[in-house]
Amino acid sequence: MARKILVLAETREQVLRNVSYEVIAAGKEISEGGEVVSVLIGENISSLASELIHYGADRVVTVEDAKLSTYTPDGYAQALLATIKEENPEAIIIGHTALGKDLSPKIAAKLQLGLISDVTAIEITGGNVIFSRPIYSGKAFEKQIITDGLIFATIRPNNINPLRKDDTRTGETHSLSVEIKDLRTIVKEVVRKATEGVDLSEAKVIIAGGRGVKSEEGFEPLKELAHVLGGAVGASRGACDANYCDYSLQIGQTGKVVTPDLYIACGISGAIQHLAGMSNSKVIVAINKDPEANIFNVADYGIVGDLFEVVPLLTEEIKALKL
Ligand code: FAD
């Protein structure tokens, strides 16, 4: 059953985020040969439309306005609701990012829709779209179907592979004019936390430190390993609470949910609340002094040892491999 799917592209400082391509791939699967329309909201972003088409969007709708230059729930909701009205899709797919988590309940409430959030897998059986999502902090998965009306879901970043880029693909782009009014949120300034390098929520490799790093300086060997692997540094709440790093690095139930290809947990015990944010990583390596630490129960590879000895050795070995 061919469906028309609307997917939301996300940008940061006029650069498309990876999740924009992942929602297209999810949309393609759900569309069953129908049309995937990508919505691009912002200011001066229309030049990005061709990139979305190269990654599989059949059509792109742009909504541009100076008031949309940074995300606000009111502004984006107005732009997206107008696009939904215009396009009348059968499903809407948004990334389960900070933006998506903020925006999607607002849209669902406005349109009186059910929302399936934090989807990690999609299957189509007997014409139904079945969404899997983790529950109980990732201890179990449930499957949900919307049987009647508009399908609305957010998908967890880094779970669905983008389609292969095809620079020869062409598709139509059109701009939708939406009057953005009565904004209750005005962004005066965007202050970035000093998380150098790769964005944690999009990183393919994450080196995370826990209370075992013992100090702010204790994160230095982790940063070096992240640097040679082209990855990002993350942390447990234990490390954040102890003031060793900023809370923007926190991974877990009350922090960021990440699914990198490689997660290296250094000096992290593996509390259930931490596992909720990283246990779906593709390969997990744990470095811990305590052979009984719970993190070893989810690790693919475990190293029992002092992180201050193991991490620099790993960094040196990887540097040597790259020479
Ligand atoms: P610890 O549990 O103290 O573990 C430190 C580990 O380091 C130990 O296993 C130790 O053996 C090892 N170690 C020490 N020195 C070394 C060394 N030199 N080399 C190698 N290993 C060493 N936590 C999160 O992480 N994220 C969340 O989002 C989160 N949300 C929470 C929400 C709620 C409602 C609650 C109640 C708790 C939450 N927590 C969260 C906290 C969680 O329960 C744990 O307290 C926290 O994850 C522990 O952090 P940790 O593993 O760094 O510290």
Q: Uncertain spans, ≥5 residues at pLDDT below 50?
A: none
Structural class by helix and strand composition: alpha/beta
The succession of helices and strands, N to C, reads EEEHEHEHEHEEEEEEEHEHEHEEH
Count every beta strand, where a strand is a DSSP E run of 2 or more residues. Answer: 17
The radius of gyration computed from the alpha-carbon positions, rounded to a whole number of angstroms, is 21 Å
Gist of the model:
The chain is α/β, with parallel strands linked by helices and 323 residues long. Helices cover 27% and strands 26% of the residues. The chain is globular and about 60 Å long.
Please tell me about this protein's structure.
The structure is a single chain. With about 325 residues, this protein is α/β, with parallel strands linked by helices. Helices cover about 25% and strands about 25% of the residues. It is built from eight helices and 17 strands. The strands form four sheets. The protein has a seven-stranded parallel β-sheet with strand order 7-11-6-1-4-5-12, with helices on both faces. A five-stranded parallel β-sheet has the order 14-13-15-16-17. Helix 2 links the parallel strand 4 and strand 5. The structure holds flavin-adenine dinucleotide (FAD).
